[in-house]
Amino acid sequence: MLLLPLFALFSLPFCLAASADAAYEKLLKLASNNNGLIKLDDASYNLLTHPQRTWSASVHFTALDPRRRCAPCKEFDPSFTAVAKAWSQVPAADRNTHFFATADFDNTMGTFQKLGMQSAPVVHIYLPVDGPRRPASGRNAPIVYDFSNGFDAGPLAEQLSQYTPVRIPYKDPIDWAKYGTMAGTGLIVLSGIRFFLPILRSRWAWAIGIVLTSLTMTSGFMFVRIRGMPQSGAGGQWIAQGYQNQFGQEVTVVSFIYGLLGSSFLMLTLVTPYQTNPSRQRAQVYLWSAVILVMFSVLISLFRVKNKSYPFKLLL
Prior knowledge:
Distance between the termini: 106 Å
Shape: elongated
Radius of gyration: 35 Å
Order of helices and strands: HEHEHHEHEEHHHHHH
Largest sheet: 5 strands, mixed
Number of helices: 11
Helix content: 55-70%
Oligomer: single chain
Structural class: alpha/beta
């Protein structure tokens, strides 16, 4: 009677090897029936992750049913499918040692519960447990794909190629929309160049563009963009406290003040002196001088709002 337990113990490795071979054959059939992408249920997931597997696998856990309202799942699914399709072009000797599979939540609820998976999409890479491709570390736990590069197929193929016997031959499809947009834009530019050319040759057009750019940049536009500052603060506050902080609305206000001040000086120096009517000339002197005085007062008051200890004051 003691021989029966010993016989069962010694025959266990052979049984596991036989079951692994049977699982492998079933996986090959499942892959060939769906263009290289296995649609998993709980039973086929157990076959794919057999404890004595000599193959590797990339498994995409998702929830595509409209009732699940998983927008990221729908966005990522075409990328995973495209990479799996690219892998189906690899010669069979290498292709049959790595499987691509999709586990939809509604078909693999037991697997999702067993893995404690609370979100989707997720990609697991299962390495071989036995055979020549078994990792030297002996790792059995799945590797989780890093979505830091987004849902695009290119980064996915690049990272999964680290665990396949050969590189995944994925190539991004031709973006016809991009090239069509470029061609259309080129045609519009070429057809409208005779209308835009006089504007581009105009000194006043370049002068206005340079002045507007200078006003925007000197008002703190790049400071706000680089630091990612919001347009306004809590409660609609548009002036940030401290000289090292600035809201987006401040750029608009300060550039307007700078522009009005610059325009006032230009009017005083370029327009007013050439007025032939003395009364009109005198009125313009008073007007633009008043504008300069008021605008400088507003500008200085902004400094006082940003820093209560600012010592200077003009009118306000």
